[in-house]
Design goal:
Strand order of the largest sheet: 3-2-1-4-5-7-6-8
Helix content: 25-40%
Order of helices and strands: HHEEEHHEHEHEEE
Largest sheet: 8 strands, mixed
Number of helices: 6
Strand content: 15-25%
Distance between the termini: 52 Å
């Protein structure tokens, strides 16, 4: 093992221990992504055109700044209202990504929805939006993955056994949430 490799390994090991202890480090994204147990997700929002790639946790430790960025990214794209997204939703998406062995960005159709938006969509979409949608609670997201069939995406989500999975082939998306385990 080279001195440089050994030095980097010690640095990242030390950085991970500091982070686990709650110390915030000013690390660049590539450095953060190379830390042990770094969990990263990438997104493209189909309505806003925005893109985001973020390390959201190191092991079981969620990164507060990353969660804030994700909350803003997954805001209600109709009203601009920012909600609090359940971090377990990111765990679920990460599990789906691992199941598919896919590095493609998730295409987001809908993340957080404020109650007013949800009610308006419910009234205009012929019953396709739930009255008590988990989108309102920041516990649901509607997604697809370029190059991955919707049925494969659905199957990978079902394999997680971690919440609800809705298959909307005619609308070209899969709904996943952190509610009770169910499928439709």
């Amino acid at each position: 093992m080279s001195k440089l490799h050994d030095s980097r390994r010690r640095f990242f090991g030390h950085a991970a221990r500091l982070l686990a202890a709650g110390v915030v480090l000013p690390l660049t994204k590539p450095a953060l992504a190379s830390l042990p147990n770094a969990r990263q997700l990438a997104f493209e929002h189909t309505h806003t055109g925005e893109r985001l790639s973020v390390v959201f946790s190191l092991g079981d430790h969620y990164l507060a700044e990353s969660l804030k960025r994700l909350n803003v990214f997954l805001r209600d794209h109709y009203s601009g209202e920012v909600g609090n997204i359940d971090p377990q939703l990111f765990d679920l998406l990460y599990g789906i990504k691992q199941e598919l062995a896919c590095e493609t960005a998730f295409q987001v159709i809908s993340g957080y929805r404020c109650p007013q938006t949800n009610n308006r969509l419910r009234k205009s979409r012929g019953g396709g939006v739930a009255r008590q949608s988990l989108h309102i609670e920041g516990k649901a997201i509607d997604i697809r993955l370029a190059g991955v069939s919707l049925s494969d995406l659905r199957d990978a989500a079902l394999a997680q056994s971690r919440g609800g999975v809705g298959y909307y082939a005619s609308s070209d998306f899969v709904h996943v949430d952190t509610g009770r385990v169910r499928a439709w």
